[in-house]
Amino acid sequence: MKSQPNPAQAALAQARPSKFRQLRELIASPELEFLMEAHDGMSAKIVEEAGFKGIWASGLSMSAALGVRDSNEASWTQVLEVLEFMADASSIPILVDGDTGWGNFNNMRRAVRKLGERGIAGICIEDKLFPKTNSFVGEGQALAAIDEFCGKIKAGKDSQVDDDFRIVARIEALIAGWGLEEALKRAEAYRAAGADAVLIHSKKSTADEIFAFAKAWNNRCPVVIVPTKYYATPTEAFRQAGISVAIWANHNLRAAIAAMRDASRRIRREESIAGVEKTVVSVQEVFELSGNDELAEAEKRYLPAKAGEKRAILLAASRGAALGRLTEDRPKCMIEVRGQPLLSRLIGTVREAGVREITVVRGYKKDTINFPSIATVDNDLFMTTGEAASLACAIERLEGECLVAYGDILFRHHILDQLLAHPGDIVVTVDALWRARVSQAKNWVRDFAACTRAFSPTFLDDEPVHLRRIASDMPAEEIGGEWMGLAKLSARGAERVREAIHAMRRDGTLAKAGLPELFTRMAGEGAPIHVLYIAGQWLDVDDAADLAEAGKFL
Ligand code: SPV
Ligand code: MG
Q1: Number of CB atoms found within 10 A of residue 97's CB
Q2: For residue 479, which of 493, 466, 469 has the smallest C-alpha distance?
Q3: Confidence band (pLDDT; 50, 70, 90) for 466?
Q4: What span, in angstroms and rounded, lies between the C-alpha atoms of 120 and 38?
Q5: From the centroid of its chain, how far is CA 333?
Q6: Owning domain of residue 90
Q7: What burial letters (b/e) apply to 227-243, b meaning 16+ CB within 10 Å?
Q8: Both 57 and 122 in a single domain?
Q9: Is the same domain home to 183 and 116?
Q10: What is the number of the ligand 1 atom nearest to the C-alpha of 58?
Q11: 228 in ligand 1 pocket by Cβ < 6 Å?
Q12: Which ligand is nearest to the CA of 249?
């Protein structure tokens, strides 16, 4: 799906020929090439997404999309505005239908300059009179005098801001009923005046007069056609006739009208949008086409984290194999407890604490983790790496005030409130009632924390408690409590964790490390890691018994 170019795409685009050069090459190509109609930024994106090499900015379609007639009712600067959106939205060249050049040679000069400045690669002008009428409306339309039109072509060529800008001269002699001789006479005059190609137009239902023109013209310069009325002619016949470019001139507009009519009428009839839901693109697709992902990335790069805005990184890459069949098709954080996945409950708790930007690190069965407005990053090496490596996958989001949590824990809100209120740069939550959990006769590996001071229910002073280390085997007398898999980092703390991750990557210890090793290392290096003692009111889910507990906990 196409979206706004990111810096890497932009660099690639820069390596491509300019849009002017692209249109020049398209017209000069010995193959039959195609231009597809678009009339606004979105349709321009869709044309590019479909694989076309160039866009026809149709006067009829742009007018109709604006709700006006194809009779120069939209001013040329209004058209220019539309074109600018189209050019910004796409990286392929646009040939604009410039009607009669929006006036005389002088208007043409200014238009060509402005088009070039806005990245429009070429203009097609037709030899009629301003205000123009669509070629399929009425009979016997008046044609411009040949010398006046040639002056307009020359003025345009003298005004182009890029040597590769293309001017296509459109001959309306067949439309106006003047015949082949007149068409050929005009084609030659326009070519001699500097036109880069001629467009021979016809409103007949067969291409006979187009082929007669092409044969007599003998490719003195490239020939462009618009087969709207002779649509049944096989494209191969255009190739055989040596046509350079075929323009599919209005089919996105007509497709849009048909689709919008169907949707509007059905919604009105059914007084519901349920029926059309499957017939329209998703809102997500609209976001994707609009390039929302690029904006989200750019915001991270350029917007300072707002004061008080907190982030959370939830580590949810591991399977939880001890849960057996329950984790065959999903990671354990996606197991439902009372009808809602664990992770979704955790996200709810974190959100309620005012954390807006949440990132989940996925690994095992990653496609099952997909929540609206939750960013994801993937640790595809989850089978052989630990949580430190998962956190490293989200290192770009480890910035500003930040929570880090395992994806399989449940806890009461007040724990998070206390944690967020703690002034330390790095704070880990340690459950002082660890003996109660151990006495549940569980043989799971526990993350015991050794701290500078034991928990006392009568703490009256503010003397901070620091972490010495976290390990799964530790003499009971050293254990201060059990780390619950939740930590808070200030902006400074996040920076120190990032530095520690980089150091572990350098010395080769990152891949195998869990968060206990990460914090233990930091503590050993003298980083003050604060301990927030809590007294139960949380659980993690490692096995079926935990799952049953979780049900009760809620
Ligand atoms: C347009 O697309 O606006 C054209 C082509 O000029 S046609 O409508 O066929 O004249
Ligand atoms: Mg037109």
Answers
A1: 26
A2: 469
A3: very high
A4: 13
A5: 28
A6: 13-249
A7: bbbbeebeeeebeebbb
A8: yes
A9: yes
A10: 2
A11: yes
A12: 1
Distance between CA atoms of residues 27 and 21, nearest Å: 10
Centre of ligand 1 to C-alpha 194, Å, is 22
Q: Which residue among 228, 230, 254 is best mutated to probe the pocket of ligand 1, counting the most ligand atoms within 8 A of its Cβ?
A: 228
Q: What does the pLDDT look like over 106-135, one tens digit per residue?
A: 999 999 999 999 999 999 999 999 999 999
Tokens of 220: 């003195």
Taking every pair of Cα atoms in the chain, the longest distance, rounded to a whole number of angstroms, is: 106
Contact (Cβ atoms closer than 8 angstroms) between residue 151 and residue 105? yes
Is 297 found in the same domain as 239?
no
To test the pocket of ligand 1, the residue of 97, 174, 204 to mutate (highest count of ligand atoms within 8 Å of its CB) is: 97
Q: How far is the CA of 551 from the centre of ligand 2 (A)?
A: 67
Among all bound ligands, the one having the nearest atom to the CA of 64 is 1
**pLDDT tens, position by position, 138-194:** 998 999 999 999 999 999 999 999 999 999 999 999 999 999 999 999 999 999 999
**Is there an atom of ligand 1 within 6 Å of 58 CB?**
yes
Q: Alpha-carbon distance 430 to 412, whole Å? A: 14
Phi, psi of 410 (to 5 degrees): -125, 140
* Sequence-distant contacts of 71-76: CB under 8 A, at least 24 apart: 71/131, 71/132, 71/133, 71/134, 72/99, 72/100, 72/102, 72/130, 72/131, 72/132, 76/102, 76/103, 76/107, 76/111
User: To test the ligand 1 pocket, which listed residue (69, 70, 125) has its Cβ within 8 A of the most ligand atoms?
Assistant: 70
| pTM over the 0.85 mark | no
Q: How many domains does the chain have?
A: 2
Question: Which tokens is 311 given?
Answer: 């982030």
Q: Which residues of 335-364 are buried (b: 16+ CB within 10 A; e: fewer)?
A: bebeeebbbbbbbebbeebebebbbbbbbb
In a domain, 273, yes or no: no
| Residues 229 and 307 reside in one and the same domain | no
Same domain, 289 and 218: no
For tokens 């089978």, the residue is 383
Q: What spacing in Å lies between the alpha carbon of 49 and ligand 2's midpoint?
A: 24
CA of 443 to the centre of ligand 2 (A): 78
Active site residues: 70
**CA 498 to ligand 2 centroid distance, Å:** 58
